[in-house]
Amino acid sequence: MKVGLHIADFTWEGGPPALRSRLGEVARGADNAGVDRLSVMDHVWQIGPLGPPEHEMLEAYTALGFLAAVTERVKLLTVVTAVVYREPGLLAKAVTTLDVLSGGRSILGIGAAWNEEEARGLGLFFPPRAERFERLEEALRICRQMWSDDDGPFEGKHYHLARTLNSPQALSRPHPPILIGGGGERKTLLLVARYADACNLFDTPELPHKLDVLRQHCAAEGRDYDSIEKTVQVRFDLGENGERVEQTIEHLHELSELGFTVAHGTLARVGTLRPLDLMAERVIPAIEKF
After folding, report:
1. What tens-digit pLDDT sequence spans the chain (290 residues)?
2. I need a labelling partner for 222 at 20 to 30 A (CA). Which of 8, 60, 120, 254 fits?
3. Residue 88 gets which letter from DSSP?
4. pTM value?
5. Torsion, Cα of 206, 210, 212, 215 (10° steps)
6. What values do phi and psi take at 153, rounded to 5?
């Protein structure tokens, strides 16, 4: 099993003037600790479970470009891009640029979007839910076409591209991996089976059921269930002095037994860097054996 670090809270000691250096330290610490991937949210305001909307939030792809520059090994992604916040052609171009400039380390994390409040607040496009899922499927098709040898037009219900030219092409082969976030059983997991290289599910008691649903969709789509990377969204809290490390390892073993190969999540007190040391010294060596 591998570990991914999700950085979702930028309200740290020192405020915005210190954010550049602190974020760089965390990213380099994760890179050196053996973390497999590093992600940020695609939100423009902070979300309710983490703090009030007025708290600091960085734009996702600008932040990922910075993270690419200060790291050498970790994969980079959003968890996850709100499909309606960017036109799909521009999104594919952004992920391709990240892939090229990071040396082939980008992943497209994408979903149907949900935060209407922030979208309305900043005037971002936010259609009804059914349309968002239609646009998500078309965006997935557009990205896959732009990462292929086909630079012809794309004609969908919502998107119309006259020429899907993408130069330079991504370094990742056959293309940057596509991860779809969310556990919706009728639409999201169907799109995972149809288009994605990975899924990302929240760590809840429903996980076995969600995986069963995905397995059924794969069977219906003629897709190899085992070819999809299973990622689970968790919260790592190792304790002030590492007192919860063994409990964390035990839970990660349980998730591994379900078939998850990546535990991806926030790390309590990450801004102090000590939790990353604990990850490197105790957690990662233990779960690599799963």
Report:
1. 999 999 999 999 899 999 999 999 999 999 999 999 999 999 999 999 899 999 999 999 999 999 999 999 999 999 999 999 999 999 999 999 999 999 999 999 999 999 999 999 999 999 999 999 999 999 999 999 999 999 999 999 999 999 999 999 999 999 999 999 999 999 999 999 999 999 999 999 999 999 999 999 999 999 999 999 999 999 999 988 889 999 999 999 999 999 999 999 999 887 776 889 899 999 999 999 88
2. 254
3. H
4. 0.95
5. -160
6. -75, 165
Residue type, 42: D
Contacts 24+ apart (CB under 8 A), 270-276: 270/5, 270/7, 270/26, 271/12, 271/13, 271/22, 271/26, 273/25, 273/26, 273/29, 275/236, 275/238, 276/26, 276/29, 276/30, 276/33, 276/35
Q: Tell me the domains of the chain and their CATH numbers.
A: 1-80+228-290 (3.40.1280), 83-181 (no CATH)
CA distance 77 to 250: 27
